[in-house]
Amino acid sequence: MEQSEPQPGTEGRDSGEPRANERPPRLLRVRLWQAIGGMSVAIAIAALIVLLEIAASKARLNNYVNRRVAALNATVRTLRHQKAVEQRTLGSVRERATEGEVFEKILFASDLRTIKLTAPAEKDRVKDKSSGQSGALDLPTGKLAMSESADVAMLQVNGLRPAGTFQVYRIWWMPKRGLPIWAADFLVGDDGLGTVPIDLPAGREKGMTLEVTLEDESYSDAPGGTVALKGEFSLLPGAGQGPHKARH
After folding, report:
1. Between the N and C ends of the chain, which has fewer C-beta atoms within 10 Å?
2. Rounded distance, CA 120 to CA 155, Å?
3. Which has more pLDDT, 108 or 42?
């Protein structure tokens, strides 16, 4: 019998070889996309884990830096406080040294004399209702020790009430003619005591007075507060000679 010729395309199917343009079965395509999806989810999870680790590491680093900054700030505050205390102590020592030097100059001066300061008269205290006094039965007083040859003076006060917040006691030379001359500012403690060195005015004249007023701590050209103490300055015989000649 004659064998019939094989039909075109039957050789490949008979030999079991797939055709080049034949599409894979649907099941294979589904598995392929499942594998791709699984890989994508795994990559996303891995990236999320890495991001979480980075965030946690950054948080730990920020926490450490914040703790270090807080510790450094505390150290700086402590050092600033210590510096302020040392500066106040140094200022007090310098002030005591200055007071000691002035007191020594006055004490050994040949022309040493004192001027007494008292609270304003009753009529003045009625006019100035708040006169900086500690009480009607315990009136404040002051004493000015001075030497014209050394051109220095020291004022000691007692019985003054402590100045309020943003207030100071201010010392003024009050000439009979002309503007008041600021001498010094000072504070008193709870005991009402105070000591302050002051300079004598350049142009001293008979009848000049010394006043202590309670003022706001801001700058002022003339006394505006209540008068706490007041005393009269008098020239020594022959003190009108030289650079401190009295004005007539």
Report:
1. N
2. 17
3. 42
